[in-house]
């Protein structure tokens, strides 16, 4: 496949600092859209299920197949962005998302809604990896983890917006209107990317002969295969724990403690603020002490907090505990962008970001299903506590499989 001219006239002569800021803003807003979309779906599931007469399994499938679509989109858009450009593929992915999210508002039943959600998920799949790649290739090594963590904060901004907007908007405009609302930030994000140029590093590499297919680089040697396996495990645990908790927690609080939609939204907002603090702290910590030590510290904190949280019962305890648990459980999101970028060459970097993270997202997509099954059999508190086992596996994978490349120059 032949590479295209990846410069954009409006910004081809921008300074490195200006380009870096634009790349960061575009990536943050794109990932915010991702978080906003998935959380409003969690809030809307009861209304959608009631209106379209969906079973619990069908409602859960809407989330799972959105995430499966994201895996497909991650692979496709990741590979294409390593060939024809990061910015171009981000623009295409956001258009796919916007069109099919809008169509969700006109769904007549489970089958067509499932199809729309899956294809919208394909559009969302490119957001994380391509955005992280843009930022990693635009920022200096000394601030790479910190800048990448800001992209992770975009997700939390989107989730927080969903938690604040949905409780009052959903009763007024209904779930169909909420899907229309979801299209608006997508169009704004698309406009912002029109003013963004490709990283100079990527432009230079497109002039060189390719050494291998992008996906082949993930398994080009024993060391690369070991690293890819380790990162896939980390991403799987990250997504499994996050979706297992965030999708079911509002329903759990409602049924177990009588939380209204507004109070569940408050819990989500406070928990998301804890997650945001964790992500920001992780980026600074990873730049200072290294990627592996930061991951180990957070994984240990996650083991402790999921066990503690499972034993809380007071509304105040659940509120404060949710914020602290969120700090550790989702704070690690601040480290993947820098970690993956430093482990793979430029001509395969976006592929590695999207493939590995979205493989983890695909496995994590079963988090709501597994958590629901465990909760039905043992109770939600036990289902949460069992997540501690996953974070122990996470720690082992980090120690054994993940290299330390803090400050490394990108190839």
TrEMBL record:
Gene3D superfamilies: MFS general substrate transporter like domains (1.20.1250.20). The chain crosses the membrane at residues 23-48, 60-80, 87-108, 114-135, 147-167, 173-192, 229-253, 265-286, 293-312, 318-343, 355-374, 380-402. It is a multi-pass membrane protein. Keywords: Membrane, Transmembrane, Transmembrane helix. GO terms for molecular function: carboxylic acid transmembrane transporter activity. It is found in: Membrane. Pfam families: MFS_1. SUPFAM superfamilies: MFS general substrate transporter. Residues 23-406 form the Major facilitator superfamily (MFS) profile domain. One of its GO terms (cellular component) is plasma membrane. This is MFS transporter. It comes from Pararobbsia silviterrae.
């Amino acid at each position: 496949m032949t590479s295209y001219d990846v410069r954009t006239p409006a910004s081809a002569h921008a300074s490195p600092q200006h380009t870096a800021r634009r790349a960061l803003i575009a990536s943050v807003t794109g990932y915010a859209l991702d978080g906003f979309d998935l959380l409003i779906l969690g809030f809307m599931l009861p209304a959608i299920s009631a209106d379209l007469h969906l079973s619990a399994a069908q409602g859960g499938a809407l989330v799972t197949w959105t995430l499966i679509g994201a895996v497909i989109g991650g692979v496709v858009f990741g590979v294409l962005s390593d060939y024809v450009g990061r910015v171009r593929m981000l623009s295409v992915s956001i258009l796919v998302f916007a069109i099919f999210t809008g169509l969700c508002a006109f769904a007549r039943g489970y089958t067509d809604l499932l199809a729309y959600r899956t294809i919208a998920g394909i559009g969302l799949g490119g957001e994380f990896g391509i955005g992280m790649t843009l930022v990693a290739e635009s920022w200096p090594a000394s601030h790479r983890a910190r800048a990448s963590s800001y992209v992770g904060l975009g997700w939390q901004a989107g989730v927080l917006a969903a938690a604040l907007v949905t409780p009052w908007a959903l009763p007024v405009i209904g779930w169909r209107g909420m899907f229309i609302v979801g299209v608006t930030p997508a169009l704004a994000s698309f406009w912002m990317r029109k003013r963004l140029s490709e990283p100079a590093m990527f432009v230079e590499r497109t002039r060189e002969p390719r050494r291998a297919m992008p996906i082949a680089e993930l398994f080009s040697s024993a060391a690369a295969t070991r690293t890819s396996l380790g990162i896939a495990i980390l991403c799987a645990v990250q997504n499994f724990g996050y979706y297992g908790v965030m999708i079911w927690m509002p329903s759990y609080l409602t049924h177990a403690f009588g939380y209204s939609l507004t109070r569940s939204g408050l819990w989500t907002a406070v928990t998301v603020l804890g997650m945001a603090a964790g992500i920001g702290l992780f980026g600074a910590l990873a730049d200072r002490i290294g990627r592996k030590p930061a991951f180990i510290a957070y994984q240990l904190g996650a083991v402790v907090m999921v066990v503690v949280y499972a034993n809380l019962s007071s509304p105040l305890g659940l509120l404060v505990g949710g914020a602290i648990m969120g700090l550790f459980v989702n704070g690690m999101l601040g480290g993947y962008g820098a970690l993956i970028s430093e482990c793979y060459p430029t001509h395969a970097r976006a592929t590695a970001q999207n493939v590995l993270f979205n493989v983890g997202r695909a496995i994590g997509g079963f988090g709501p299903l597994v958590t629901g099954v465990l909760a039905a059999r043992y109770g939600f508190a036990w289902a949460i506590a069992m997540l501690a086992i996953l974070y122990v596996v996470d720690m082992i994978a980090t120690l054994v499989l993940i290299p330390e490349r803090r400050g490394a120059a990108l190839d």
